[in-house]
Structure formats: structure tokens, C-alpha cells
Specification:
about 210 residues; alpha/beta; 5 helices; 5-stranded mixed β-sheet; Nucleotidyltransferase, domain 5; globular; 2 domains
């Protein structure tokens, strides 16, 4: 069974195509461009399909990282995943993007860049998430029970967080696919790809104009 995986929750524009049974055999393409998600994602997916020798008609499912992440980039990935799945009649499965950075045999803090001098974060033990994903300033992140940290946010605020830094700044699509594999192989019902924004977007609709007093 071939799967398409997408994650745009960070500065990385990532896609993968390959067998759901063996995430290590995925063809993965990643480009780091915090403002290029809209332009880069479709060509990246096309490159993955071509390199894997898989046609869109051969896909069985779409797996997507649902964040947390900045509004625009995350939205591009999820809209693309939904559009492809709808066009091909494929089920969709969502995975928290932070889960794709967790390390299986360590107690780690996963922290990604949330901009505004903040990080998206969650704590993990042996690959299992201990917290609901949150957003806060780095100095306010609880570190109890963590022996190391990973993610672009952890690297950016390494001096503030103070834990040993592991390799890996962006979600690993092998881990993303592995997290959804059981559901895909079992033929579980398609899931809505609900984004984890955790806060309001920077751009908001203008309010009503103020009345002008003569």
C-alpha cells in the first residue's frame, strides 16, 4: 500500500511517498523555506511520486502533520492533503507534527519555532506524548522529566531551555507515517484533518469602522 505524507507545520516543506508497511523505504523530499510552502509543496510532491515510481492512482491514503504550526504554512499542507485525497477518493489520517520529532527511547522535550519569541512544545517519554501540544515563551516551558530536547525551537532557544540538544530540527516523515500506519493498514475510517493552530492568525479581519462624531 502506497501512502503520500505531507508536513508543512514548520519552516520545512516536506513530502514523502512510499509503502506504508516500511516507512524507511519512503522517498522523502524536504526544502527549508519558511515563506515558500505555497510555491514549493506541489513540485515537492510531484518529485516524490516520480522518484518513487508511483502514480497518484496507486496511492492508498494520505497522511498529514496537523501541527501545531504557523497558520499560513500549516494551512497550505492540510488544504493540499485534503484536495488530493478528495480528488482520488482516498482516506486521510492526521498526526500531531510534534510526534514526528519524538525519540523512542528518551524522555525529551520537543519544541518547534512558533515565532513571536515563542515555541510549540510537548514532552515525551519513550516516544509517547505526556502533554497536550502547547505554545508559550521558551522560559515558561516546564522541563520536569526531560533529559534532552529536539526541534528547531529547542535549537533556537537552547541557552534558555538548557537541556542537551539532539539532532533533528523538523518533523521526520518516517515517524509521521509510522504513527499512522496501524490505522491505515486496518482500513480505519478517514479522519478530518483538523489543524492545531493553538492561537489566532496574525492577519485578522478589520473591525467595524468607528463612528465619526460631527
Amino acid at each position: 500500500m502506497f501512502v503520500l505524507a505531507i508536513d508543512t507545520s514548520s519552516a520545512a516543506v516536506s513530502a514523502a511517498v512510499g509503502p506504508i508497511e516500511d516507512p524507511h523505504a519512503l522517498v522523502i523530499r524536504t526544502q527549508v523555506n519558511a515563506r515558500g510552502h505555497g510555491e514549493l509543496l506541489a513540485p515537492t510532491i510531484a518529485d516524490c511520486l516520480r522518484s518513487a515510481g508511483v502514480t497518484p492512482a496507486e496511492l492508498h491514503a494520505v497522511v498529514a502533520g496537523v501541527g501545531p504550526g504557523p497558520f499560513t504554512g500549516l494551512r497550505v499542507g492540510l488544504v493540499t492533503a485534503i484536495s488530493i485525497a478528495d480528488a482520488r477518493g482516498l482516506p486521510t489520517y492526521g498526526v500531531c507534527s510534534l510526534d514526528a520529532l519524538a525519540v523512542a527511547d528518551r524522555r525529551v522535550l520537543v519544541a518547534t519555532d512558533a515565532r513571536r519569541r515563542e515555541v510549540y512544545w510537548a514532552r515525551y517519554a519513550d516516544g509517547r506524548r505526556r502533554d497536550e501540544p502547547s505554545v508559550s515563551r521558551a522560559e515558561d516551558v516546564p522541563l520536569e522529566g526531560c533529559e534532552a530536547m529536539v526541534g528547531a525551537g529547542a535549537r533556537q532557544y537552547a541557552e534558555v531551555l538548557g537541556l542537551p540538544l539532539l539532532d533533528g530540527d523538523y518533523p521526520d516523515l518516517r515517524r509521521l507515517v509510522a504513527a499512522a500506519a496501524e490505522r491505515v493498514l486496518a482500513g480505519a475510517p478517514s479522519e478530518p484533518l483538523t489543524p492545531l493552530y493553538l492561537r489566532r492568525p496574525d492577519a485578522v479581519a478589520p473591525g467595524q469602522p468607528k463612528a465619526v462624531t460631527p
